[in-house]
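Student: I would love a firmer grasp of how sequence relates to backbone shape in proteins. Thank you; the sequence and its tokens follow:
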Amino acid sequence: MAQAVIMPKLGQTVEVSTIVKWNTKVGDTVQKGDILFEIETDKAVLEVDSFFEGTLLKILVKEGETVPVTTTVAFIGEAGETVPDVVPPVVQQAVEKKTPASTPVKTAPAKTVAAEPAKQVQQVFAETVQSSELPPRHHASPRARKLLKDSAVSSDAIFGTGQGGRIVER
């Protein structure tokens, strides 16, 4: 019985692939692991090897054609074996090329985006910038705060030498 060669799904997001080149011809003997064809996905060009041994009986998808993944692209079996007539669904890549040039294309008017959300973003950004311009808060240990208060020295006048710039008594 002839084995169907399917277009592999080589990624979670890959839905269609294009056959770039067939490395084998109809009638060629194929071993497991032989490279049958090369495909192009949306991200890379990859080689597809055979999972079956036998003779390449029929190629259903020609070079340059794009088909959905898991589509039968060829059959491998014993020489002289009959294969079913299967027509794979070919994906139309450029629908615009099929429309006549004299037909005007109608487009919907572009939607206008309200400027109000942009103003809200600018306002929030301005508030954030203003709040970040506040004078730095000096962290001091409770004992250092008491000493500063008793000696009437401002915490702005001294630099902290403790962990993270904290003002500590020494």
Remarks:
- The longest strand covers residues 16-22.
- The chain has two domains: 3-90, 135-170.
- The beta strands are 3-6, 16-22, 29-30, 35-40, 45-49, 54-59, 66-68, 72-77.
- The chain has two helices and eight strands.
